[in-house]
Design brief:
Elements (H helix, E strand, L loop, with lengths): L15 E4 L6 E2 L2 E2 L3 H10 L4 E5 L6 H10 L9 E3 H12 L5 E5 L2 H9 L3 E3 L8 E4 L7 H12 L3 E4 L5 E2 L6 E2 L1 H12 L5 E2 L6 H10 L4 E5 L2 H11 L2 E5 L6 H5 L9 E3 L11 E3 L8 E2 L2 E4 L5 E4 L3 H13 L8 E2 L2 H9 L5
Parallel strand pairs: 1-4, 1-13, 4-5, 6-7, 6-8, 8-9, 9-12, 13-14, 14-15, 19-20
Antiparallel strand pairs: 2-3, 10-11, 15-16, 17-18, 18-19
Helix pairs in contact: 3-4, 5-6, 10-11
Protein name: Sugar-phosphatase
InterPro entries: GNAT-like (IPR041065), HAD-like_sf (IPR036412), HAD-SF_hydro_IIA (IPR006357), HAD_sf (IPR023214)
Pfam families: GNAT_like, Hydrolase_6, Hydrolase_like
Length: about 350
């Protein structure tokens, strides 16, 4: 893990930036404001980039084409998907032409076929494994076949367990919600979870680009950030997707990022990113102080992100912050911008 010196650009401390996609660069099929500019700037500077996504509904080439259509110069080899990672793992576990029951989008079936396995759809095809990924047309019949096959002895692989997907209209059920239905029917967990928070996508990206000091950028504490922690990588949480400042205050030690920013602009501007102490530092920082006692008070002045960093340090060190009170207009403004004003 590499530190970024105060006043320097965060991105300059790392030799690879690994982006999550949904909630960081895009929302379904639209670019997030500032993402096109930020990624274009990194490309212009020659910074190696990778895109590691839990979304198993598109092939790497399709993801790259989608991003290019939004003005991002992305190559297929820069994209790592949980569908491809799952297929590679299945190919290592089972002989060629083994039947695998695929529950998911066409992209997942294609990845399974391209590694020499045979995608099937029914229990009667005697699948050796079930692989389950997100697909917008998955229905009860698909989940029923998966449950029946696993109950009959097939190994159960899932591409990821994201409970929700971010969309411009708000979060919608993700693959984790579909996995939960099968889990409930079976009364047990999957045998293998491939995508984040497992570290495989991050470590594969680092190997592919020969990176020694990668930075993982994500919008979800429970997948992107926890995956980076498990992989031993520095991480940046951006507040453009699922996880909120309130979620960050209550993040377990296994899912605490090193930095937080409102958006990808924090990669370049030291004033738009805050360093977090992961519970080991003071609750003071950049003009703010969190004072505990009979009541918890935020005092001082500065940016709302710096206030968030001070609140995280306090919360992660055991100070209750759910009902923190502002002691000034500046503190009230910061808490309001963070959605933490009670």
């Amino acid at each position: 893990m590499t530190d970024s010196s105060p006043g320097s650009r965060l991105v300059d401390a790392y030799d690879l930036v690994i982006f999550d996609l949904d909630g960081v660069v895009i929302l379904v099929d639209r670019p997030i404001e500032t993402a096109v500019e930020a990624v274009g700037r990194l490309h212009a500077e020659g910074k190696p980039l990778a895109y590691a996504t839990n979304n198993a509904s598109r092939l790497a080439a399709e993801v790259a084409a989608l991003l290019r259509g939004m003005g991002l110069a992305v190559r297929p080899q820069e994209v790592l998907t949980s569908a491809a990672a799952a297929a590679e793992l299945l190919a290592h576990r089972f002989p060629p032409d083994s039947p695998v029951l695929v529950v998911g989008a066409d992209a997942l079936r294609t990845e399974v076929r391209e590694v020499g396995l045979r995608p099937v759809t029914r229990l009667e095809d005697a699948p050796v494994a079930v692989v389950q990924g997100y697909g917008p047309t998955i229905g009860w019949a698909d989940l029923a076949e998966a449950a029946l096959a696993v109950r009959a002895g097939a190994d159960w692989f899932v591409t990821n367990t994201d409970r929700t997907l971010p969309t411009p209209r708000g979060p919608v059920p993700g693959n984790g919600s579909l996995v939960a239905a099968v889990r409930t029917a079976l009364g047990r967990d999957p045998d293998v979870v491939v995508g984040k928070p497992e570290p495989a996508l991050f470590t594969a990206a680092a190997r592919r680009f020969g990176a020694a000091r990668p930075l993982a950028v994500g919008d979800r504490l429970d997948t992107d950030i926890e995956g980076a922690v498990r992989a031993g990588m520095a991480s940046l949480l951006v507040l453009t997707g699922v996880s909120t400042p309130f979620d960050l205050l209550h993040a377990p030690a296994s899912a605490r990022p090193d930095f937080v920013a409102s958006d990808l602009g924090g990669l370049f501007d030291p004033d738009r990113v805050a360093r977090l102490t992961n519970g080991s530092g003071s609750a003071d920082g950049d003009g703010w102080q969190v004072v505990g006692g009979a009541r918890t008070v935020l005092t001082g002045a500065g940016s709302s992100l710096a206030a968030l960093a001070a609140l995280c340090a306090a919360s992660w060190s055991g100070t209750p912050v759910d009902d923190v009170e502002p002691d000034s207009d500046a503190a009230r403004r910061a808490l309001g911008e963070l959605g933490l004003l009670r």
